[in-house]
Amino acid sequence: MAAPPGSRTLLASASVPPLSSRQRRRRRLPVAALVLVALVVIVVVVLSGGATPSTGFDVSYPQCAGDLPSAPLFGVVGVNAGRANTTNPCLGTELGWAQGAPGQRSPTQPRVSLYINTGNPGGHHVSDFPHTGTAPGYGACTGRLTDACSYLYGQQRARHSFVLVAAHAPALARRAPWWLDVELLSTWAGTYQLNVAALRGFVAGLQRSGARGPVGIYSTAAQWKDITGLSAQSTSRAFHAMLPDWVAGTVASLAQARTNCVAGGFTGAPPVLAQYRLGPRDADLRCPGTA
Predict the structure, then answer these.
(1) Using an 8 Å Cβ cutoff, are 166 and 79 in contact?
(2) How large is the average pLDDT for residues 4-28?
(3) Which of 91, 155, 227, 257 is geometrically suited to a Cys-Cys bond with 205, CB 3.0 to 4.6 A?
(4) For residue 283, what are the β-bridge partners?
(5) 23/150 Cα distance (integer angstroms)
């Protein structure tokens, strides 16, 4: 607050006896004490790995052995343990952790989102690859690595993940946003068409199981292109929908995440989340300007 007009002149002309050295020390002690307290608080926060409730984090099975981030603004929880047919062994604990977050008001970000591993391992003759059934738009599955069987694989694995979450929190499984983790580390088929069919099956599997929240893609433009052959211009046509995107960035800085919010999109929709590294953790920025 600004001083009133003339206050400097009044102070200069007033007759005030000088402070003794003891009085000056007494005036300085409270300030020194406040500085010390502030430094102690900072050290405690750093050592404890704490975070202010302005940061979102994503966690999954690698975090089962350690402490979860404290005071998250929101959480994104991995349902699987690295492959689409596995289960995160501490899923219930991590869901509870995320449900304790406040969420973000503007732009809106729910307190809990979910992500699942994807892939198309049909060429490796995995035991859970479909052998029969009919896929909408693709026809009959005969057990071979076809578009139809790839679609049904994605549909069935997505249902598996939905059921895992619903066992802990049925309402959450229905209303939370879901993300499909699409990375080159997963096993993929030899053609774009087969991989797109599998991912379309993942989307349909979540929705048919009861997921009413948005279903989006976690990836980068380069990985999305390598796996599906799609770009920001062609993705919505291939999926007959506009899919939200979460820009991966496990080694990105916060500054890079802010850039990815503007220029990192790969599905044609404005990015919703951008991942970055915060110390030993994967943090997430809710991109501004998104609904």
Answers:
(1) no
(2) 39
(3) 155
(4) 57, 276
(5) 81
